[in-house]
Amino acid sequence: MNKKIVEVVAALIRDKNRFLICQRPANKARGLLWEFVGGKLEKGETKEQALIRECAEELAITVAPQDVFMEVFHEYPDICVRLTLFNCVIARGQPQLLEHNDIKWITPSEISEYEFCPADEKILKKIIEEF
């Protein structure tokens, strides 16, 4: 069976030496795993537009996407994702829990304390190397 490739965008939001992570809702695929805020592109959206929309829907913040931090491809049992992670700054608002189970600001040294979605593993390694 050929799995569809889903285009996904996410935000790497930093605050000095910390970055923002979100815990997936328990009732979703990969429930309670940690991830970067973001989601799937909708028809006709650019990656940046999708990211701005997702951050507004999920955290009630307005982000300004900058350059691409990293792009990864990951195959889950149920889905293939091409994830583009953008460096982002919060232009307006404070992150609020609208959809996620929890949100946290963590440092690279704290990454090992959290269980992340498998697609994020290569990204986390790069964060540890570069922060």
Topology:
Elements: E1 5-15, E2 18-23, E3 34-35, E4 38-40, H1 47-59, E5 62-75, E6 80-92, E7 102-106, H2 121-130
Parallel strand pairs: 1-6
Antiparallel strand pairs: 1-2, 1-4, 2-3, 2-7, 5-6
Looking at the overall shape, the CATH architecture is: Alpha-Beta Complex
Provide the structure class.
alpha+beta
What share of the residues does DSSP label as strand, in percent?
Answer: 35-45%
Quaternary structure classification = single chain
Might you state the CATH topology name? Nucleoside Triphosphate Pyrophosphohydrolase
Which CATH first-tier class would you pick? Alpha Beta
Number of E-type strands: 7
- Give the helix level as a range of percent: 10-25%
Mean pLDDT over the residues: 96
| Bulk shape | globular
Fourth CATH level, the homologous superfamily: Nucleoside Triphosphate Pyrophosphohydrolase
Distance between the termini: 40 Å
Radius of gyration equals 14 Å
Low-confidence stretches: none
Largest sheet: 7 strands, mixed
